[in-house]
Write the structure tokens for this entry.
Amino acid sequence: MIDLHAHILPGIDDGARTLEEARELARRSAADGVRAIAATPHVRADYPTGATQMEQGVAALRADFAAELIPVEVLTGGEVDLQALADLPPDDLRRFTLAGGSYLLLEFPYRGWPLALDTAVHALCADGLTPLLGHPERNPEVQDRPDRIEALVEAGARVQVTAASVDGRLDEASRSTAFRLLELGLVHALASDAHGRGIRAAGLATAVRAIGDRALGDYLTNEAPAAIVAGEPLPARTPRLSPGTASS
């Protein structure tokens, strides 16, 4: 599996605090079947991560994991919020793309539906970048109307949901919304959004089992993420979850 959203760079944001925590997260991910993790530190006002800071952090983790024999590849990336998106120079913005490709992890607002969201999706697509919307299932507006995401997908965005939403570690509203988005065919990737120990810890396998559809689980954790890392288009037809398929 490939995990496209993880706060594994130590001491940069609210994710892994130390190098040992980063190692622990990577070891747990490897044991769960993850072979590559995109380091996606927050890029926003409270955690103003710079592109050079991210790249140096990834290089340091790669070297450390090689020395520690931790079999996980670390990829470049960033979780960019709407305000930072407007403020970042274009060259720096592209350095935050996932694995240096054409997909950018965009932090979906935790509440509300700002006009800037639709504008950002259209602007990124016009610039040749594909926004990957991180954890929209946690937003109350989406929870109230999951089908509202469809317009953003039709505009060119792709959607990532959090494993802890799918397997029930977060709240029931996030879980039910994640499954409704899966049923609508509006989910393209499953990721951990790992922050170290706790609820959003490493691991995707439990969430894949909760989905109850092996082919869809492979698409969300392997097939689509591999295409995203390669900067390639995803299949035109996104798999849907049949209602009632999910395991309890």
Q: What stands out?
A: Strands lie at 2-6, 36-39, 42-44, 47-48, 73-75, 79-80, 103-107, 130-134, 158-162, 189-191.
